[in-house]
Specification:
The protein is α+β, with helices and mostly antiparallel strands. The chain contains 4 helices and 3 strands. The chain has a 3-stranded antiparallel β-sheet. A hairpin with a 7-residue loop joins β2 (72-75) and β3 (83-86). The longest helix has 16 residues, at 20-35. The radius of gyration is 14 Å and the shape is globular. It starts with 9 loop residues before the first helix and ends in a 25-residue tail after the last strand.
Length: 111
């Protein structure tokens, strides 16, 4: 698990985090924290802050989040803005991570 002490700028996130799904999660989490909410419509401003441009890149990013991220859910609504929701851990769950599985970024879990 990686621990960072902030504040982190969007420029730092975009420069240091190569994986677009991880960047989107970090940027969206920052927006959620600023607004004190647990869901966020993925507007053009959010995509631009994460530097994910183009429909294909956005589709691949959302697909990766759906497949690899346990703590966030993606709600796609036809003709509407996609929403990213923070999923609260179940009581007694051993899942303490808040983001992508290490394997999704090509990292191996620590023993």
């Amino acid at each position: 698990m990686l621990f960072l002490q902030g504040p982190l700028t969007f420029d730092w996130i975009n420069h240091s985090i190569p994986d677009p799904a991880s960047r989107l999660i970090l940027v969206a989490r920052a927006y959620m924290d600023m607004k004190s909410c647990s869901e966020l419509p993925l507007t053009a401003a959010v995509w631009e802050a994460a530097r994910i441009m183009g429909k294909d890149a956005r589709y691949r990013t959302l697909k990766a989040i759906r497949a690899n991220v346990k703590r966030y859910a993606v709600e796609t609504r036809k003709g509407r803005t996609t929403v990213l929701r923070k999923v609260h851990a179940q009581p007694g769950s051993s899942d303490e991570s808040d983001g992508m599985a290490p394997e999704a970024n090509g990292l191996k879990p620590l023993p």
